[in-house]
Amino acid sequence: MMQSATRFANPAADAKAVLARHWNGRIPVDVESIARQLGADVQYGDLAGVSGEVALQDRVPVIKVNSNDSLTRQRFTIAHELGHLMLGHLADGKKFRDPSKNYTLGSYDPRERDANYFAAALLMPDDAVRAYAAGMENPTATTLANAFGVSKAAMGIKLKMLGIIPQWATI
Ligand SMILES: [Zn+2]
Known about the structure:
Blueprint: H1 11-22, H2 31-37, E1 41-45, E2 52-57, E3 60-66, H3 71-86, E4 96-98, H4 110-123, H5 126-134, H6 141-148, H7 152-161
Parallel strand pairs: 1-3
Antiparallel strand pairs: 2-3, 2-4
Helix pairs in contact: 1-4, 3-4, 6-7
Bound molecules: zinc ion (ZN).
Zinc ion binds near residues 80, 112 and 115.
């Protein structure tokens, strides 16, 4: 077993592989269905201060989602926790509890950053975003964020990355 695997993690490629196998091609991406197809149990409840958690319970991955959060945030939580699972972060009985500050790209913990990249790639598949934007006369982060069920900030980053809106644009 290579111990250095996480150093070479490619969260976007892993998310793309998951989409290829488990996504029905519709937007917004049904992230809960994908999580269940991957064998995870998704539970909702009051998580007192954190947005999400993921851990193995009797070898079953259990994703807990704070049901007090907005639906957009809940979708991101499932995708982020699924990232921890699919990127191998749960080895050795590790458990993740994620306050919302873990969802910023500036998070110092590389596992949190990788889980965020995975989540962004899962919820906003590049080709689907490009195709959707191509059908719009004036694609905006707001319209696309609503269509994909993500935050305006997350979609803004994606649209700049894909060159659909300029880097200098205000989101
Ligand atoms: Zn996390």
